[in-house]
Amino acid sequence: MATYALQIAGLVLGGVGMVGTVAVTVMPQWRVSAFIGSNIVVFENLWEGLWMSCMRHANIRMQCKIYDSLLALSPDLQAARGLMCAASVLVFLAFMTAVLGMKCTRCTGDDDKVKGHVLLTAGVIFIITGLVVLIPVSWVANSIIRDFYNPIVDIAQKRELGEALYIGWTTALVLMVGGALFCCASCCHEKSSSYRYSIPSHRTTQKSYHTEKKSPSVYSKSQYV
């Protein structure tokens, strides 16, 4: 029962992490305009993401433009785009692998040992995906903070941390916790299966005892002869 609860909790966290990974990848709020110094034009918001940049004026609909080239991005955003795409693929593979290793799934058979290995694989992939999400989010955040406190950078070019970065940190944590739960569920599977095959059942022990009691030994037969 505890193993099944760990599986359900890990699958839920894995699903939330998968949705969060895709959301962080497509969101344009990686870098947002900073209102500091003379740059206090609060009726104009600028968002910069991995795929597009958006600008919103007061009482005007938001206008977004897709980047014309990958080279138009800064190096940190270029690396973030590649890593987040890889993370999206990995989290999908991890989620599908976890579904195959669930106790209620029959397509992989009823062997608990096989299901334990499948869950362990899913947990490792979830943890790796969390690290892959954490790297670009922290990299972009570090460059934003560095430029913000750099006096050489123009005030108009300074940015603040966007909502996508905070969601990315949360998603990375959720993915790693979900992967850890699947690893724990795999260990519980292995322990239960080893305990099951190492200790004989009470019925089998009694049956063997009665069989040995009923069958006379060779020595006793020789005495009767």
TrEMBL record:
Bilayer disposition of the protein: Multi-pass membrane protein
Chain segments annotated as transmembrane: 79-100, 120-145, 165-188
Gene3D superfamilies according to UniProt: 1.20.140.150
UniProt keyword Cell membrane, yes or no: yes
Main location: other
Name of the protein in its database record: Claudin
Protein location: Cell junction, Tight junction; Cell membrane
PANTHER family xrefs: CLAUDIN
Similarity annotation: Belongs to the claudin family.
Cellular component GO terms held in the UniProt record: bicellular tight junction; plasma membrane
An MF annotation (GO) of this entry: structural molecule activity
Keywords: Cell junction, Cell membrane, Membrane, Tight junction, Transmembrane, Transmembrane helix
Pfam families: PMP22_Claudin
Protein role: Claudins function as major constituents of the tight junction complexes that regulate the permeability of epithelia.
